[in-house]
Design goal:
Blueprint: H1 2-26, H2 29-59, H3 62-100, H4 112-122, E1 123-131, E2 135-136, E3 139-140, H5 143-159, E4 171-175, E5 181-183, H6 184-196, E6 202-210, H7 216-234, E7 239-245, E8 252-259, H8 261-264, H9 268-306
Antiparallel strand pairs: 1-6, 2-3, 4-5, 4-7, 6-8, 7-8
Helix pairs in contact: 1-2, 4-9, 7-9
Length: 307
């Protein structure tokens, strides 16, 4: 290894020396002597450096050299890994502290950052709407089309996803704004009113899907609380009906809101408020549910001990 290094350096010096000699010949004689002297000085200096390097290389045992390099590499990798680990732990701690920090609701609105985080943790809210006069697929939506879609949507949500309900000849699976199930006669009247209502020009559909497993009763209460709180904060008075579906991995409610364009139109801020309220109410509901479960478990264990 030492001999190879010396040979390479000598060849490099020789090539450099020959190059300088050729350059010197092509220039006036007065400057050639100076160049040759400089070249000799350069070779002398480089020769000293080669000797110094050779001495240093000889003084090192090849095995010791390899071992020390391995140790250095391991230490470097260890330090790098520790830095990455520390950064990961630091970022995880920050994330956890953000999740556990109290959420404030100034004037019913959350900042976009905290609302997105909260919404993604415990509930998913989806919403779309149809409005008379709105351009859709190159055509203006008619009032008749809005009413027809409203009626069809109510039919769909009341006839699907309700296998957990016991069959009832008198009641449908549709709930009103008081949380009561509509009778079949009331449902027929509702559909008639939709076509007769001259002010009905728009419809909004909202799906509320908590990520926690809730009972049908809890889901009903949650839906009512979310909408009531939204109305209180925005001043809206919504005409709505909803159904609860249990045919998927997560229980969810379908809300159908009908009314004028102004009633149905939500600003971006209002829609975000709805999502924030849904997240807040879902968190409260799951906490209450967990407390009830703990109470029931405690009562059961107490009874078993007494027996």
């Amino acid at each position: 290894m030492i001999d190879l290094a010396k040979t390479i350096l000598q060849l490099q010096l020789k090539a450099e020396y020959e190059k300088r000699e050729i350059e010197a010949k092509l220039k006036p004689k007065s400057k050639t002597k100076i160049k040759i002297k400089n070249n000799k000085k350069f070779v002398s200096t480089q020769t000293k450096r080669i000797k110094e390097k050779a001495i240093n290389l000889k003084s090192l045992n090849s095995k010791d050299f390899v071992v020390s390099n391995k140790i250095n590499l391991k230490n470097s990798a260890k330090n790098k890994f520790q830095t990455i680990a520390n950064n990961s732990i630091s970022s995880s701690v920050k994330s956890v502290s953000n999740l556990n920090s109290p959420i404030s609701f100034p004037n019913g609105f959350l900042s976009n950052k905290s609302s997105k985080t909260a919404n993604s943790i415990n509930v998913v809210v989806k919403s779309n709407y149809t409005m008379a006069g709105r351009l859709q697929n190159g055509k203006r939506v008619s009032v008749k089309a809005v009413k027809s879609l409203s009626s069809a949507s109510l039919d769909y949500i009341s006839n699907h996803g309700n296998r957990d309900l016991e069959s009832n000849e008198e009641l449908t699976s549709l709930y009103d704004s008081d949380g009561d199930r509509l009778s079949k006669e009331e449902f027929k009247e509702l559909k008639k009113e939709i076509y007769q209502d001259s002010e009905l020009t728009a419809m909004r559909r909202i799906v509320i899907s908590p990520k926690e497993d809730l009972s049908r009763e809890n889901m009903k209460d949650l839906t009512l609380e979310i909408i009531k709180s939204f109305e209180d904060q925005t001043g809206k008075n919504l005409n709505y009906h909803f159904a609860i579906h249990t045919d998927t991995d997560h229980i969810h409610s379908h809300v159908i809101i009908t009314g004028t364009n102004r009633d149905i139109n939500f600003t971006k801020q209002q829609l975000q408020t709805f999502k924030d309220i849904a997240s807040e109410k879902t968190l409260e509901m799951t906490k209450e549910r967990d407390i009830e479960i703990e109470k029931d478990l405690h009562i059961k264990q107490t009874r078993e001990i007494e027996l």
